[in-house]
Amino acid sequence: xxxLIILGGGYGGMTLLSRLISNLPYNIMVILIDKxxxxxxxxxxxxxxxxxxSDEHIRVPFPKHPQVSILNAEVASIDRSVNAVxxxxxxxxxxxxxxxxxxxxxxFHGITGAAEFTHSIQTxxxxxxxxxxxxxxxxxxxxxxxGGGLSGVELASELAENRPDLNITLFDxxxxxxxSYPPKVSAYVEKWFKDHHVKLHKNSNIxxxxxxxxxxxxxxxxxxCIVWTAGVMPSKIVADLTVEKDxxxxxxxxxxxxxxxxxxxxxxxxxxxxxxxxxxxxxxKQAEQVAAVLIARWKGAKPPSLPPIKLKGVLxxxxxxxxxxxxxxTALTGRIPRILKHSILWKNKNKKKS
Length: 354
Fold this sequence. Notes:
By secondary structure, this protein is of the alpha/beta class. It folds into 2 domains: 2-35 and 73-105 and 232-311, FAD/NAD(P)-binding domain, CATH 3.50.50; 108-230 and 314-346, FAD/NAD(P)-binding domain (3-Layer(bba) Sandwich). 29% of the residues lie in helices and 28% in strands. The protein has a 6-stranded mixed sheet with strand order 5-2-1-9-20-19, covered by helices on one side. Helix 1 (11-21) packs parallel to helix 8. The mean pLDDT is 95. Belongs to the NADH dehydrogenase family.
């Protein structure tokens, strides 16, 4: 039998697997490799860290099929010369087709101490450690969140609502947080933070992090917990691959989402160089197209003509009752985007379960 290996059970890997299951020829075996036994809704890790949801609420079982195997293991490297994936446990697995959906890691931008002395919400295990740290803080403790993008804003707001006894400071290097959003959205979010006593440190320049200390423009500021949400980069496995990449280290692909020099290897999600910012929605859309390419290949048909990927928009949470977003060129603030995000989240979760 021919073997398709999918690396990573995130949004791209899960969508791809779900799309392929009903179209698997008898001679195709699929192996999904992931360290976790479930698909986790990573976009909700901020709530897991803040203590407002349990991991049970954000996990989805991988779909089952006689020709699909789920292998809980960690990838060490990819050897293109022999079409093999090497695992940390020493095993090696050959593939006929490979889909890389390994996601991203924190990008510390070369700041000394950032990796050692900050907490993360990039993986479930790291998020759970962050939750433990935050949950054990005494009333009046100081929390620093480094990075005023979507993840930092959602974490700061969720934590402020769930733990109003904490003193939370959100650092961002720009003059406004969420600078890629319309000014209406940025202004609304900043007012929400002011009303909920979250301190904004704009135009910041983090130069060093030591244990319980953030150096902003060389000034040492003491904190009881520091969480890093200031950017991501492709996984180390991707960084180690000797293939063409863009300036951010993401793999350059053809319009069919495979390597220009190797049509056996596809890339989905945060590791793929696309003309849109990385997101769960983008990973899912891309995975749908990769599924169409593979299904056509298995049938011996010509590759499909793939349209440009278009995203519906972005929605973010400000606690349980408020939100913000940008949908169909329209800026949204208040209760409506929060309701929309909640409904879309649980609709997608139930769809993945089925």
